[in-house]
User: Fold this.
Amino acid sequence: MDACNFQNYLYCQCEDEDLDQMGIKCFVFDAKSTNLMPEFRAIARKSSTVSLSMNNRPSRILNRLPPPWVFSKLPNLKYFETTLISATVVEAFAFGNSSTLILVKLVDNAIEHLEPMAFANLPNLREVNLGDNKLKEVNRGVFANLPALRKLYLDQNQILTIHDRAFVELERLEELELQNNNLTVIARDVFKGLKNVRRLDLRKNMIEYLGDHVFADMTHLQDVDLMGNKIRFVSSAAFLGLKELTRLALKENKIVRFDPKTFQDFKIIHFLDLRQNELETLSEELMEPIYINLKNASMQLMLEG
Assistant:
C-alpha cells in the first residue's frame, strides 16, 4: 500500500517540498476511515515526509490523531496539521517524542481534554495551535520539555480554568493567545515561568478583576490585550514591574476607577485604550507616566467622557 495512491475513503496527495522531501495532504471521506491503521503504516513508511495534514470531508469523521509511532517513524517531519476531527482527547506523548516537529496545528476540531505530557519531549517544536476546539481547562504538566516553543494559541475554546504553573516549563515562549474563552479569574501563579512572553491576548473572556502581581513573572511583556472582559477592579500592583510594556488595551470593561499607582511602571507605553468603561475620574498621579509619553508622536491615548 502506497500512501500517495489512496483513492477510496481516504485520498492522499504527495507533493515535493524540496529535493528528497515531500508533503502528504490527506482528505478523509468516509466513516470506514476511523481505523486507518494500514494507511497510517503506509504513511509512516514515507520517511522523507516533511509535512503531514489530515482534513475531514464531511467533518468529524476521523475520531483520532495518528498514533505516536507514526511521528516516531518520520525522521524529517516538521509540520503536522489536522482539522475537523472528532477526537476529544490529546493523549500523553501524542507526538512520539519527535525531535523534528516544528509546528503542530490542531485548529477547529472537537478536542476537550489535554492529558499531562500531551505535548512533551519535542525539542524543536516552535508553535502549537489549539484554537477553535472545546477545551475547558489547562492542567499542569501538559506542556513539558519544549525548550524551543515560541507561540501557543489556545483561543476560541471554552477554557474556564488554567491551573497554577500550567506553563511553567515554557521559559522561551513569546506569544500566548487565550482570547474568546470563559476565564473569570487569573490567579497569581497561572503565568509562572513565562519570563520571555512579549504578547498576551486575553480578549473576550469574563475576567472580573486583576489582582496583585498577576503578571509578575512576565517582565518582558510588551503587549497586553484585555478588551471585552468584565473587569471591575484592577489592583494597584497588577501591572507592577512591566517596564517594557508598550501597549495595553482595557476597552469594553466595567472599570470605575484606578488606584493612582496603577500605571507607575509604564515608562515607554505608547498605546493605552480605556474606552467603554465606567470611569468616574483619572487622577493626575495615575496619568503622569502617560502624559510624559504623550511627547512621543506615536503615542495613542484613547478615552471617552
